[in-house]
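Hi, here's the filled form for the chain we discussed.

Project: internal
Contact: R.S.
Residues: 256
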Amino acid sequence: MNAANLLDICSFLDTTLNHGAFKDASLNGLQIESGQHSISKVGFSVDAGFSVAEKAVEARCQLLVVHHGVLWGECEPITGPWARKLSLFLSRGLSLYASHLPLDGHIELGNAAQMALLLKLSHLAPCFNFGGANIGVRGQLPAPTTLAEVASMLSGIEGALTPPFQLPFGKSPISTVGIATGAGTSVIPDCAALGIDLLITGEPKQAAYHMAKEHQVSVLCVGHYASETFGVRALERVLRERFRVETAWLSEPTGI
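And the returned structure, exactly as it came back:
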């Protein structure tokens, strides 16, 4: 079994994902550094919940890579559940690495770009600027299709809403698609301005209904968790190939 150095892995991820280009509430990068720097197995998941960390420990991982980490904005007092979680990481030699917006917007490995591959979108381009960097993509379907058909294409995603939530307020058939994963309904006006027929995102918001209706844009919500499995799965493939380490996918769909 091959082993890689923790800081070498983190440096590679920091550079590849270009963390410095994003203004993000998440502290992207190495969030928890345990005393174990020899990494032979890496776990991957969407979230860094206590139960996910337990699965990583049970799988004998020394590093957990996630999309949603534990450090957002100002650090909270290390008490209660947060203290219990931190104790688990440190006592069991498990480090934590997180990448939020950079992993949404990466043009090859990002959540949006990887979903675009699934839909076989062409003319793919970065889209939806947030704080000076793009957090999504736009592209064209192989052939005009219906909202129901696009929903069917995405129905097999792990943890997807069944059926996906639909706001059918745009033109039909659909030719152009924008993808902003997670809670991305705020980009509906951008879709209208760019002539995008359909926005695919994760989590539906109450305000999205009238926003989509008034801008005449269709919206398809597959679920927050489901829309953000793509990037970490892509990182799993990249790290396994580059560093020759063992990997584990730690599945815990939230239904949200």
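Let me know if anything looks off before we file it.
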